[in-house]
Automatic annotation (TrEMBL):
It comes from the Eukaryota. Residues 30-163 form the Pectinesterase inhibitor domain. This is Pectinesterase inhibitor domain-containing protein. Pfam families: PMEI. Gene3D superfamilies: Invertase/pectin methylesterase inhibitor family protein. It comes from Thlaspi arvense (Field penny-cress). Keywords: Signal.
């Protein structure tokens, strides 16, 4: 009889462990699917995923993306500063990147204030800033590193604007 009780106890322990394991795996799958759902709303999900890794809140995802954009824009601004004299497209890009840095900082402040309308307004301006930079190169038929970075920044900012529209 003792053998039967031990078997039942082991069976219950194994069943309980399996239930806990299944629960933990399903939680991780649900979290991954929420993250994927955030990025699935964007135009460039492959650029979104690395920036919002393990984030399920649209507010936090937007904030992280803004921070990444600020850092990348400051690097692009430094690169544009090196070549802006004598190249009108890069000079235009330098000016619009400077505007983008200001608009990103304002968008980040709007997130802290929970001002969704302000976030969307500033991020729309950021998308326009990057677009103006890219357009300056298109008009002059130039291709260079500053233009390539501006194209990526425009895509990421478009994703960021989309994420901000998911904030409630």
């Amino acid at each position: 009889m003792a053998g039967r009780d031990t078997f039942q106890l082991r069976f219950v322990a194994v069943a309980a462990s399996a239930a806990v394991l299944i629960f933990l795996v399903s939680c991780q799958v649900a979290e991954a699917s929420r993250m994927m759902n955030l990025c699935s709303h964007t135009s460039y999900p492959s650029l979104c995923r690395p920036l919002v890794k393990r984030v399920t809140s649209p507010r936090r995802a937007t904030h992280r993306t803004i921070q990444a954009l600020e850092a990348k824009t400051k690097l692009a601004l430094a690169e544009a500063a090196r070549f802006k004299s004598g190249n009108q497209a890069i000079a235009t890009c330098y000016a619009t990147l400077s505007d983008a840095v200001y608009n990103l900082a304002s968008a980040r402040k709007s997130i802290r204030k929970r001002n969704v309308m302000g976030i969307n307004t500033f991020l729309t301006a950021v998308v326009s800033d990057y677009g103006a930079c890219v357009d300056a190169f298109i008009e002059t038929n130039q291709v260079n590193t500053v233009q390539n970075v501006a194209v990526d920044l425009r895509k990421i900012s478009s994703n960021c604007l989309t994420l901000s529209t998911l904030i409630r």
